[in-house]
Automatic annotation (TrEMBL):
Main location: cytoplasm
Name used for this protein in its record: 5'-nucleotidase SurE
Binding residues for a divalent metal cation: D8, D9, S43, N96
Keywords (A to Z) from UniProt: Cytoplasm, Hydrolase, Metal-binding, Nucleotide-binding
This enzyme's EC code(s): 3.1.3.5
Catalytic activity: a ribonucleoside 5'-phosphate + H2O = a ribonucleoside + phosphate
NCBIfam families, per the entry: PRK00346.1-4, PRK13931.1, surE
Species, as recorded: Pelagimonas varians
Cofactor(s) of this protein: a divalent metal cation
Subcellular location(s) of the protein: Cytoplasm
Function: Nucleotidase that shows phosphatase activity on nucleoside 5'-monophosphates.
Family statement drawn from the similarity comment of this UniProt entry: Belongs to the SurE nucleotidase family.
Enzyme class: hydrolase
Length: 261
């Protein structure tokens, strides 16, 4: 198996080392793991691509490349420049430092990379590690991801439909904010929404007098929709959410059509 890995925390992020270990176990001794990751942190860029300016790419070592672009740029670079004629069998994105459950999914560059891989027709899985009081101070905060990543990916790949028309499925996996020994299991869950949690900005004045705004996230431990990804993560479960790039609100189509007839 040939696997392409990327992330949004940057090529030197500790979560990418965890993902590299997961990918190498999945690929096996006869497989290959290739890295194309952002040269610098790209958290929060979503599915952004560098459409109006070029992306510099540099080889950092055997099968290891850094691109000055977004995670989706890295997938494009991997598929169309690094791999060229022989495509990877799987694209893995992560392991993100922090969760990409609930509303975070919409901003995540980790998710953006998996989405781009799916748009390229490739199996893709995004993985993120929830942080919280129970794992923040661990020697390895990614302990749950490292312990369960391989088996979760294998089960997803076994269930992934082989023939898919239209927008291909990709998968969002979030590991709970607990030590590996305290993980209660794995559940398939829909994307949720944390109650009254939104991104915001906090203004600061620089010594020069110029005004700057820092983006702030909401409370990551706020209650979420029962049974949803964030809800299950906070209860100690790994969540797996199947996704597509189709943003159509299919449940609203009929009512909206009626309004125009």
């Amino acid at each position: 198996m040939r696997i392409l890995i990327t992330n949004d925390d940057g090529i030197n992020a500790p979560g990418l080392k965890i993902l590299d270990a997961i990918a190498n176990e999945l690929a096996g001794p006869s497989g290959e793991v290739w890295t194309v990751a952002p040269a610098f942190e790209q958290s929060g860029v979503g599915h952004c691509i560098s459409y109006t300016h070029p992306t510099m790419i540099a080889q950092m070592g055997p099968r290891r490349f850094a691109a000055e672009g977004s995670p989706a740029d890295c997938v494009l670079a991997g598929v169309h420049d690094v791999f060229k004629e022989t495509l990877p069998d799987l694209v893995l994105s992560g392991v993100n430092r922090g969760n990409n459950s609930a509303e975070n999914t919409l901003y995540s560059g980790t998710i953006g990379a998996a989405m781009e891989a799916a748009l390229q027709g490739l199996p893709a899985i995004a993985m993120s590690q929830y942080y919280g009081p129970q794992n923040n101070e661990l020697e390895n905060p990614f302990e749950a991801s490292a312990a369960y990543g391989v088996q979760v990916v294998r089960k997803i790949l076994a269930a992934d439909p082989k023939d898919q028309d239209g927008y291909r499925l990709f998968y969002n996996v979030n590991f709970p904010p607990v030590p590996a020994a305290d993980v209660k299991g794995t559940v398939v869950a829909p994307q949720g929404k944390r109650a009254d949690t939104r991104f915001s900005v906090e203004p600061h004045n620089a010594p020069s007098g110029r005004r700057f705004l820092w983006v702030r996230g909401g409370d990551q431990r706020a209650p979420a929709d029962p049974g949803s990804d964030a809800d299950r993560n906070l209860a100690g479960y790994i969540s797996v959410t199947p996704m597509r790039a189709d943003l159509t609100a299919h449940d609203a189509l009929s009512n909206l059509k009626d309004a125009f007839e």
